[in-house]
Design a protein that fits this description.
This protein has two domains: 53 residues, Arc Repressor Mutant, subunit A (Orthogonal Bundle); 53 residues, no CATH class. Helices cover 62% and strands 11% of the residues. The protein contains six helices and two strands; from the N terminus they run αααββααα. Strand 1 and strand 2 form a beta hairpin. Helix 2 crosses helix 3. The longest helix has 18 residues.
Length: 112
């Protein structure tokens, strides 16, 4: 999906070429077929090639993935997920300042 979101449209061979350690071509085609069956991608024929593209907008896919991550690893707690990300050894002062601004904006939005 990363490749399809980045390129917007790609053949199985193009997806495979973008992967750091790709499986075989058949595995990529099978995976794309599974994603299509689940409704995550669609394809169009371009001559003999199938060109795949995402059916779900990136922002919606992000929210869904984050929600799944929070539910799976943090028992549904956004607070625990954020706390895990706030490792002071891995965050710069600038990142922490931007997060503090986002939290403040969120608080103001909730108080209305």
């Amino acid at each position: 999906m990363d490749v399809l979101y980045r390129k917007e449209r790609a053949t199985a061979a193009e997806v495979m070429a973008e992967m750091p350690e790709p499986p075989g071509y058949s595995a990529v085609r099978t995976y794309l077929a599974i994603l299509e069956k689940k409704g995550h991608v669609r394809h169009e024929k371009d001559g003999a090639k199938f060109v795949f593209f995402p059916t779900i907008r990136l922002d919606r896919a992000k929210r869904s993935a984050v929600s799944h991550l929070i539910h799976t690893f943090f028992g549904g707690s956004r607070e625990r997920a954020v706390a895990e990300l706030l490792d002071p050894k891995q965050m710069t002062k600038e990142e922490l300042d931007r997060l503090a601004d986002l939290i403040e904006k969120s608080r103001k939005g909730k108080s209305r």
